[in-house]
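thread: overnight batch results

M.L. [08:02]
morning all. the overnight job finished for the chain we discussed friday. pasting input first so we're all looking at the same thing
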Amino acid sequence: MGRFTVISTIGFSVVIFLVMPSALADATAAQARLRVIVETDAGGDPDDEQSLVRFLLYANEWDVEGIICNRPAVRDGENRNLERTGLGIVLNIVKAYGKCYPNLVRHDARYPPPEQLLRRIVSGYEDSDQGVNLILSAVDADDPRPVWFMNWGTDHGSASSSLKRALDRVLEERGASRYARFKDRLRLSSSDKFDEHTTTVKPPFRIWIDTFRPELDRKRWYHRFSALTATAGGFDLVRDVLTGHGPLGSMYPTNTTHPQKEGDTMTFLYLVPTGMNDPEQPTWGSWAGRYGRNKNYKDKNYYWANQKDTWQGSTNRDNTLKRWAVHLQNDFKTRLDWCVTDFPGANHPPVPRLRGPLHRTVAPGERVRLDAGSSTDVDGDSLAYTWIFYPEVGSYRGTLPQLADPRSPQTSFVAPKVDTTETIHLLVAVTDNGVPPLTRYRRVIVTIDPKVAAITDQESSKMGSQINKSKLE
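M.L. [08:03]
and the structure it wrote out:
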């Protein structure tokens, strides 16, 4: 294929057909499934409904603990849905998912049954405690994994956030120390609708990624999703979503202020395990872009979209997402195909596999050898490889070394000379030749330590051979 952009990290999506093959099971083990809750004001801006269609196609990637609907009455004029309650809108979209479920589960057995999702859709209206109770139950559950919470909007006509109300209750009824333990179980990829719980009530959230802000150069970040992805890779809304893709695709509304606005989609694309991203590492990159520290909260682990990537001759914030736009839209297309096809009738993502450790410490001048030749594709498609450095993520700021055979399954480079310890991030993108082509990634982090004794190229070659016989990562 020879054409693609690239990125990677720790953990990646895999596909299952009825029983997960052991190789794919090994691949998924690298990253535990996340627990997620969505809070939506569906019934206001129709972009929530757009995002929900896409979200449900990725429900196989996480454990969906619940969907909270906080808008009791649909906003007249802006929202044209025939159903006139937020809860009713979400229930109808999930029922459409249910009609696609018999096909979806052929492609990945981890898709949750519609009955399970329907039981976890609750009202978050002001006169209801269902949303609050759902959050309390999920966070208090005997499960070591934290809960990732995504608020998609709480504005005029919707209730206050159920998470804010839950935190209010915990602080009042359980006291400061138990409030702190409860709050520490939460992670945010979200708009901020939690008032003093975000800003002043200690402790702060363990991590918050604001996928909506800041506005830069008079451009709102959550509005950029439309501009950067709507037609990426030849994506066509009518052909790829609205027609011939079953009941779920037909639920995607078109009357938003920006074409395919999906202003909330980056909250969960940030969490999709592509092999590029680690949700606890916002600066590393994801299908939702890269995120840096929010300097308005200097003492808190809070991030927003203030980073820039250099790509194809330009340096700007858009590039942190634009460089992956074709990949993520091809993936969306494919999952819509899954709604109406059996397993042989659609493409499935490859599984990149690297030999040797993903974190390596080397000496300046040492040759670093990398091998992704054991990557696989469940459809038997041929695979193409692209290796690239991601200099914005690492600490090394000198001239990057030259990669040998950057479009081969194997590559190598000589670690540059450094005076102090530095890191370099290297990504491999593995793309199949299916229709559409799908891409997944892996990341290697190389620490160059001048205190480490250099080894000869002959020794490096021998070590590379040993690595080729070692465990796949």
